[in-house]
Amino acid sequence: xxxxxxxxxxxxxxxxxxxxxxxxxTQAHLDAxxxxxxxxxxxVTVTPDLARTQAAAADAALARGEAGPLAGIPLAIKDLxxxxxxxxxxxxxxxxxxxxxxESTITAQLRRDGAVFLGKAxxxxxxxxxxxxxxxxxxxxxxxxxxxxxxAALVPGGSSGGSASAVAARMALGATGTDTGGSxxxxxxxxxxxxxxxxxxxxxxxxxxxxxxxxxxxxxFARSVEDCAILLRSMAGHDPKDSTSxxxxxxxxxxxxxxxxxxxxxxxxxxxxxxxMAGEIDALWAQGVAWLRxxxxxxxxxxxxxxxxxxxxxxxxxxxxxxxNLARYDGVRFGLRADGADLxxxxxxxxxEGFGDEVKRRVLIGTYVLSAGYYDAYYLRAQKIRALIxxxxxDAFSKCDALLTPATPTAAFAQGDRMDDPVxxxxxxxxxxxxxxxxxxxxxxxxxxxxxxxxxxxxxxxxPFDEEGVFAVAAAIERAAGFSExxxxxxxxxA
Amino acid sequence: xxxxxxxxxxxxxLARIRVGDAEVARLQAELNGIMGWIEQLNEVDVSGVAPLTxxxxxxxxxxxxxxxEGGDPAPIxxxxxxxxxxxFTVPKVVE
Amino acid sequence: xxxxxxGESGAWxxxxxxxxxxxxxxxxxxxxxxxxxFGAAPNSQVSFVDAGFPGMLPVIxxxxxxxxxxxxxxxAARINLVSRFDRKNYFYADLPxxxxxxxxxQPIVGAGAVSIELADGTTKDIGVTRLHIEQDAGKSLHxxxxxxxxxxxxxxxxxxxxxxxxxxxxxxxxAGAYLRKLRSILRYLGTCDGNMEExxxxxxxxxxxxxxxxxxRTRCEVKNVNSIRFVMQAIEAEARRQVTVWEEGNTVEQETxxxxxxxxxxxxxxxKEDAHDYRYxxxxxxxxxxxxxxxxxxxxxxxxxxxxxxxxxxxxxxxLPAYDAGVLVAEQAIADFFETVARGRDAKxxxxxxxxxxxxxxxRTGTTIxxxxxxxxxxxxxxxxxxxxxxxxxxxxxxxxAMVETGEAPxxxxxQRGLRQVTDTGAIDAAVASVLAANADKLAEYRxxxxxxxxxxxxxxxxxxxxxxNPALVNEALRRGLGAPGA
Lengths: 495, 95, 487
Ligand SMILES: [Mg+2]
Ligand SMILES: [Zn+2]
Hints:
The structure holds 3 protein chains of 3 kinds. Chain A has 16 helices and 11 strands. Chain A is α/β, with parallel strands linked by helices. In chain A, strands 1-3-2-4-6-5-10-11-9-7-8 form an 11-stranded mixed beta sheet, sandwiched between helices. Chain A is globular and about 65 Å long. By secondary structure, chain B is mainly alpha-helical. In chain B, strand 1 and strand 2 form a beta hairpin. Helix content of chain C is 39%, strand content 18%. Chain C starts with a strand and ends in a 5-residue tail after the last helix. Classes of the chains: A alpha/beta, B mainly alpha, C alpha+beta. At the A-B interface, helix 10, helix 11, helix 12, helix 13 and helix 15 of A face helix 1, helix 2 and strand 2 of B. Bound molecules: magnesium ion and zinc ion. Magnesium ion binds next to loops of chain C.
């Protein structure tokens, strides 16, 4: 079996058994990137020297028997995570030349545990997007293809599109992502891999370029639920440098994957059956319910009445916070700077040249909804509806232990589709946004293919800080689905 | 409440983003589309509901009054697009 | 009595409210671990948080919160156990993040009051609307380069208390008294050093004028005035300007202005021209600030005695007149010095000597209470030597002079210079006899009824004794020698 097809758990075992070295495992992935990345554009920066150095260190640690849990595991790092000495752009021209003098808490913890960083993954600009079409460094391709139309390039989803595409195409064993409204779960679903958004506060936001501070949460991508659990254990933990970081112990998430769902109550929220949803998605959802019932779970119908308002609420809260978070990109201390006769002109030109259209749209919406006379009508009202959305989930979790929903209303679409109207693009996140509004953990797990042969994911939502419950349910679905299909574009595949 | 070109220009200036006339027209259409879609929120009865500011439900932790950072201008200025000695620089501001 | 601006059309009343920005005394900044010291090399006290770098997050400094609570307690204000931080959004070169973290809707301290003394000796309570915690901005240097402004972020993120007064002030004098009193309270509390030259205390002055009996008219905010004298001048200048505007039939526009001490006038602030829309909203990087009531009580228990209480005590315990007590408590250092001198001694005598000869000596030598050449213990020792009759009051003044010049102890000076007072009646009688002999004419006048010459004879005898005669014994001996007047 090719080194590129390993799971993280399998690779860790192989490295400890000396079946292969970290150096070899890393080189295999660097070669894969060299052949496939020019096509998929999943990485904006590749760091072969850093990767080889880290791999050598991992081999040494393995030899000494002091290897960390992720020793020698090659990962892709979303370009939203600040990495000391390695260019970090957030997918934006305005940070095109920014080299952080500091390392984000999460990547520092991954390094602590021995991980190897292959490079920085492409993404929608400032994590604003659901197709990875808004990156200043070009679109990312989804390695999957429609059976009928194998030439049409599909989007990997977004905003963590590069991370998802890289893992799906076997250019990395795992990746970091961030999820503000679905930016981990939606691309995971589009690319046929697993992706987990933990509870808000579970992973530190320190050193992660902010989009919407009250919604942003980092999490892992991998090709198995257990691998996501392994990565999350290294990423999670209290960070005194982040005032919103939760001071709780980090459990052994991987152990929860084997728990099973016997006697668990799984809630099925009726409001997630939206009109215009593809019939096969409805069918897959029903299939997922059946799998869990067969695995011993009790199925209960629950109601989340404010679900339909979550997306519009999100498009007030997230842009409002973003309009303020992105004010620091002004051409004075770092990043792009355009000339101006006076300070205001310098600001206006720098930000006009540095930001792409979607970022400008959201910054302007955010500025508008916070501006004098509109705050109460928009921002304050949105915060109240956000409270109602949280209340919906709290009520639901009094009747069940976890929720099962579709991850996305459709499978991956073609590059260039849904670009004419922003709102159509926003609708991609209709199933994922509510979890961010409530701060609860959610995971997308591949469950099957649609008629076109494209992967579809199911979403598992859990109680705050019950990632273990989410992993247990997702792993049960994974076992039942036995999803083994592979994308058309595959590193190491002789084709 | 539809956004007119003057409003687009006003918020663009507040956000310090230069917009050309053609852009104003495009933005007006796009933002009105989005804001129109957002109007659905007026259906929701929020009377007596306390606003939820963030997803973290805990009290603010405080840190001790100890100097742990700073001391070296170099890393602070390392990415500066323009500087004079150890100062950042901008076009002269008249107060 | 009350202040007013005389216009063409009659008298105008002035309404003043002050927003004081007081830099909190702390080692590190409000939300970062960078140092706060004044005058460091440019950008040498800056963390990535203070410079608004991507992904940086604020973590609040407990001591800064404690200092704000102490100040609130010192202003007899309500402490809000739950407060919140909001972002005030605006673009400026020395505001790295593009927003200032402040407290808008829910400040940590609510309503309080500051009591000021007026010229006529009466006191007036000035309402404090609120006190909130916020970040300071960096520093823009506009005069270092012909075409550039230079940015130093050392001050960026330093903790400030914004203390907002009610529009209760009615004259430049009241505004000055309010600022002096507030600064004195902050210094007693140790929450702000009150140093206006270094900018650790800055005032925004809100001024409007009105006809007596009218409700408020439009106010203007004169920003960042950095001395009490300038605050008083700025109020006068701005009030006169507004009176002229109104009387010429125009209306005063609400705006931000700057005071130019050189021209003694205020001018509109160019950089603030385009009206601000700050888009305040709760900072999602921070959670509500919840204070433990017991912690607040511990802080209350640790508060020092404040000027008003100390003044009342000095009047009560030592029977000092209100004015003297006021002078002695105005500065903590003076109050401490006085209490050391007065301990176990005649407090009234101590107060007179401090306010009189001692302060005069400080002025003459250009020294302060902190750099005084005479310690409190030495001044006390001098008073003891008066009390036990070693020297008399007149000689004591001479001794104090010598103490200031030589820095020596009073006893030593008295011995070296042989200044002990003479109580030997023989010596005194001899001196009296020689004076009477030398002034036969005056003696005749006295005896013929010119009683007030008694003082002249006392002076002559003291002179003859080099000022060292015991005043009581000298008087007694003279009466005997002179005999009854008119006899
Ligand atoms: Mg002000
Ligand atoms: Zn302020």
